From TrEMBL:
Topological relation to the membrane, as annotated: Single-pass membrane protein
Annotated compartments: Cell membrane; Membrane
Name used for this protein in its record: Regulator of SigK
GO cellular component: plasma membrane
Lineage start: Bacteria, Bacillati, Actinomycetota, Actinomycetes, Kitasatosporales
Entries under PANTHER family matching the protein: ANTI-SIGMA-K FACTOR RSKA
Pfam family, one: RskA_C
GO MF, any single term: sigma factor antagonist activity
Renumbered residue ranges of the record's region Disordered: 75-94
Organism: Streptomyces alfalfae
GO-annotated biological processes: regulation of translation
Domain Anti-sigma-K factor RskA N-terminal: 7-49
C-alpha cells in the first residue's frame, strides 16, 4: 500500500475476507481511525447478508470455452532470447528481416477482417461487463440502504420471491427462487404497478430459475409490482394475466 488513499479502496476486499494477513492488519489499524471506511464496511456486510436472499447460480456451461477462446486471442509478449552463454544472439541478415516484415504485412492483410471481428466481439463483451458491473453496484447500494424494506411473495408452481424497495435510492429489486422455465419464445417481464397501471421494469433471464433482478427505472410513486409472461424481447403493455402481483412494503 502507498498510503491512506490506497487503504480507503480496501473496504470491499476486507468485508469479503480477501486480504492477505499484512494488508488486513494494516487496514484494521486504519479502520479504527476512519469512520467513513468503518461505515462502508458495515454497509457491505449488511449487503452480503441481504444477498443471501438469492441462491448462487452455477456458471453457464459455455463460459469455460468462451474464456479459453478469449485467452487465445490475447497477444503475449515473448521473453527475450539469449544465447547459450548469456548475451542475446546477433541479428540475422537484413534480407531475412525484410522477408519477415513482408510476411507480417501479408498476414495482417489476410487476417484484417478477423481482427476487426474479434475487436468488435471484445468491445461488446466489455460493454456488457461494464453494464453488469454498474447494475451490481446499484443493486448493492439498494440492498445496503438504511431504509431498504423487503416483502416476501408466493409465486405459482411453488416458486418463491421477494421484493426489496428503498425510497432513498428510488429503486426496487426482485428476488426469485425456483421459478419455472418460461415456454420457448417467452420471457418473464417485471412491471411497476401505478394504481393498477403497469409500467415496464425489465426482463428476467429465461435460463435461470433463481436470480436477483434490479428493476429498471425509478419507483416514481409505484405501489407495487407485477410479473407477466411475454413474448421474447418484452412488451410495452402486459399481454397476459399477471403471474404474480406484489404490493411494496409500507
Amino acid at each position: 500500500m502507498n498510503g491512506a488513499a490506497d487503504l480507503h479502496t480496501l473496504t470491499g476486499a476486507y468485508a469479503a475476507h480477501a486480504l492477505e494477513d499484512e494488508e488486513r492488519e494494516s487496514f484494521e489499524r486504519h479502520l479504527s481511525a476512519c469512520e467513513s471506511c468503518a461505515q462502508e464496511v458495515r454497509e457491505l456486510r449488511a449487503t452480503t447478508a441481504r444477498l443471501g436472499l438469492a441462491a448462487s447460480v452455477a456458471p453457464r456451461p459455455a463460459m469455460k470455452d468462451e474464456v479459453l477462446r478469449r485467452i487465445a486471442a490475447v497477444r503475449q509478449v515473448p521473453p527475450a532470447e539469449r544465447g547459450p552463454d548469456g548475451p542475446p544472439p546477433k541479428q540475422r541478415p537484413r534480407r531475412l528481416a525484410q522477408w519477415a516484415l513482408a510476411a507480417c504485412v501479408a498476414a495482417a492483410a489476410a487476417l484484417g477482417g478477423t481482427a476487426v471481428w474479434q475487436y468488435g466481439q471484445t468491445q461488446a463483451a466489455r460493454d456488457q461487463a461494464r453494464q453488469a458491473e454498474q447494475q451490481s453496484q446499484e443493486l448493492a447500494a439498494l440492498l445496503a440502504a438504511p431504509d431498504a424494506r423487503t416483502r416476501a411473495a408466493k409465486l405459482s408452481d411453488g416458486a418463491g420471491g421477494a421484493v426489496v424497495v428503498a425510497e432513498s435510492r428510488d429503486r426496487a429489486a426482485f428476488v426469485a427462487t425456483g421459478m419455472a422455465k418460461p415456454p420457448a419464445g417467452k420471457v418473464y417481464q417485471l412491471w411497476f404497478s401505478d394504481d393498477g397501471v403497469m409500467r415496464p421494469a425489465g426482463l428476467m433471464d429465461p435460463g435461470r430459475s433463481t436470480q436477483t433482478v434490479l428493476m429498471e427505472g425509478p419507483l416514481d410513486g409505484a405501489a407495487g409490482m407485477g410479473i407477466t409472461l411475454e413474448p421474447a424481447g418484452g412488451s410495452a403493455r402486459p399481454t397476459t394475466a399477471p403471474v404474480a402481483v406484489v404490493n411494496f412494503p409500507a
